[in-house]
Design goal:
The structure is a homodimer of 344-residue chains. The first copy, chain A, has 344 residues and is an alpha/beta fold. Chain A folds into three domains: 8-51, no CATH class; 63-163 and 299-332, 3-Layer(aba) Sandwich (Rossmann fold); 166-298, Rossmann fold (3-Layer(aba) Sandwich), CATH 3.40.50.2300. The first copy, chain A, has twelve helices and twelve strands. In chain A, the strands form two sheets. Chain A has a six-stranded parallel beta sheet, with helices on both faces. Chain A has a six-stranded mixed beta sheet with strand order 7-6-8-9-10-12, sandwiched between helices. In chain A, helix 1 crosses helix 3. The longest helix of chain A has 20 residues, at 299-318. Chain A is elongated. Chain A starts with 7 loop residues before the first helix and ends in a 6-residue tail after the last strand. Chains A and B meet through helix 4, helix 5, strand 2, helix 6 and helix 11 of A and helix 4, helix 5, strand 2, helix 6 and helix 11 of B. Chain A binds a DNA duplex (30 and 30 nucleotides) through helix 2 and helix 4.
DNA sequence: AATATTTGCGCAAACGTTTGAGCGTCTTTT
DNA sequence: AAAAGACGCTCAAACGTTTGCGCAAATATT
């Protein structure tokens, strides 16, 4: 019934050769003759030999596991990012250990500890929205566990990351709205701890100034990304002197919260008040009242790049290249996508 | 810089005792005296000792990894199920190896092979929608790797599974519509390979007959769950002699596709044509035109139960209980949830 | 024909932990 | 006081693989 898997040693004893020869033969080591090599491979195939990964992991002192810590798996952005991470890692025989911080700084810290204990080879992190200290990540580097941040990148120096530059997309977004005739353009931004919030703000300012318009700080408010927070933010904007006719929101969820609330105030979406957002979630395809445009952040690409970088770092470590040249800072340019829905 | 982690042997040599004593002390083995035990634990804490998992995995001949194969991670149902699996597994020191079949039978087979090679201890599977043969799963059992199916459960005997009984929810759904006065109730069902499709059909029939209504087979059509397939199915229903005033759809996506298409035909949703669906996706909260009710399938609970069962099976295996009593068949009753939206 | 080089393989150690068996030493029982 | 038992610890093997080193035989170089 439960036939034990074949081992290298068994193959060796059957062929009356040493285990090391078998190992080398299977790895096409040049010092093994063609005849024995083919004999070994033939028998291995016959016996359905599969290398014992746990033994290899142990022997190599590596787990071939990369940890992934992100806020919320059920968010479409992250699940497609994970999908990319998974695909990329699998191709190089790496396994993905997944964990969600649920956007809590405390949980995030605990997870970092757990990952360390699990001896992951490296870590991919998208930080919780309110994480304010970053010592827990620094400590991992002491253990020689490289970290690559993606998407939610903290504003600290000397880290590897791949992020999406929100500035370009934001400039495009504001320009788009200006072209449509809007002048009072509001922004519901995210928490100030996030790099992306700063970029959005910068993009907003640059676009305004680039069009010889003055920047009105009261039109940019931040929120905590919750439904209630969005309501407050929208109230604030609607109460401002120059009532905006268009609003750029931090992401699609905020946008949908805002749209929902605005409709409850009998504001007609995209005629009285137009929305532009970020993320371009698939659920937008099902909606009736949606942002007129959305800034795509390329989650699959981000996940892929981040994993590539991490695997590269792990190889560097292998090669004992103590001085890795520099920090990877991959920036993907965001891109405004106009929302072309059917007639809905 | 890269301080190597402490090992049991190091602790042993510092205290001038044997490694086995240290190991036993840390595990509170009764044969170790109180004094040495506390000495060991104290030093272990000081040196920040963390057991080398790879060594333990290797030694125990287990990977402490459970594989998860599911169709699509980005579907909200599965991502919350994975969330549950992850949580449950982590508590027992298990790691989750994730893979997506993208609803392809071929990919699924390849993944099963990969999982075997990775020596996962057990497998959690939700099958691809068109998987028709199941030998690839059977072969794993020969290797003593237990499988627990969840949600998308194949219709084959002698398997462990946790599923959601769609019959009850469907009966509730049809009763609900009947109560609202509908008489011509259509159903857009899923592929016939899925157990859940049969259950929905059964529930539909039982509800009709239970209300002394005759069952009209032309009102139940199946579709492949794609947008185009949904259109076809809806066309078919609309063309039938008794044009339905309400439709029960296989899941929320199908429902939304159908609603989208129906609106394009100028059919007024929930007045001309009411929809009831399954899954109760969060995105429903953002929609304007949604099903009036949805059958909840409890993804978190399913993931949790399935993991519990798998871990239990793994323990049985440990205890060399060759004859495991029987097959786990956990069935969670689905439940109709009325869609109480604000004024939207 | 003698020396140098290559080719093909085996030996043994190493990775860190767990665990059955063994063995002194101290305490208890008769 | 001798036998029996409990206690506390050590020894050594085992898990499967990789890899530096060494050694013989075959081949190539003078």
């Amino acid at each position: 019934m439960s036939s034990k898997p074949t081992t290298i040693t068994e193959i060796a004893s059957i062929l009356n050769i040493s285990a090391s020869t078998v190992s080398r033969a299977l790895h096409d080591h040049p010092s093994i003759g063609l005849t024995t090599r083919s004999k070994v491979k033939k028998l291995a195939k016959e016996l359905n030999y599969e290398p014992n990964q746990t033994a290899i992991f142990f022997q190599k002192g590596k787990t071939y596991t990369i940890g992934v810590i992100l806020p919320e798996l059920s968010e479409s952005f992250f699940s497609t990012a994970v999908s990319a991470i998974e695909d990329t890692a699998y191709k190089k025989n790496y396994t993905v250990l997944l964990a969600q911080s649920h956007d809590s700084e405390l949980t995030e810290k605990q997870l970092v500890e757990k990952m360390k204990n699990h001896r992951v080879d490296g870590l991919l992190v998208s930080v919780a929205k309110n994480t304010s200290t970053f010592d827990h990540f620094r400590s991992l580097e002491k253990y020689n566990i490289p970290i690559v941040f993606f998407d939610r990148v903290p504003e600290i120096p000397d880290i590897h990351y791949v992020g999406c530059n929100m500035e370009t997309g934001t400039i495009e977004a504001v320009n788009y709205l200006l072209k449509k005739g809007h002048r009072a353009i509001g922004m519901i931004n995210g928490p100030k701890t996030l790099l992306a919030s700063g970029q959005r703000r910068e993009g907003y300012i640059k676009a305004m100034i680039g069009n010889r318009l003055k920047f009105d700080p009261s039109l940019v408010v931040s929120c905590d990304l919750t439904e209630d927070g969005t309501k407050e933010a929208l109230n604030e904007l609607l109460a401002s002197k120059r009532k905006p006719t268009a609003i750029v929101t931090f992401n699609d969820y905020v946008s949908l919260f805002a749209i929902k609330y605005a409709r409850s105030l009998n504001i007609s979406i995209n005629t009285d008040l137009a929305f532009v957002s970020y993320a371009n979630l698939p659920l937008i395809n099902y909606m009736d009242h949606t942002p007129v445009a959305s800034v795509e952040q390329f989650p699959y690409l981000q996940g892929q790049k981040a994993t590539d970088i991490l695997l590269d770092l792990l190889n560097q470590k292998n090669l004992k290249t103590q001085e890795h040249a520099a920090y990877y800072r991959i920036i993907i340019e965001s891109q405004l996508i106009e929302n072309k829905k059917g007639f809905l």
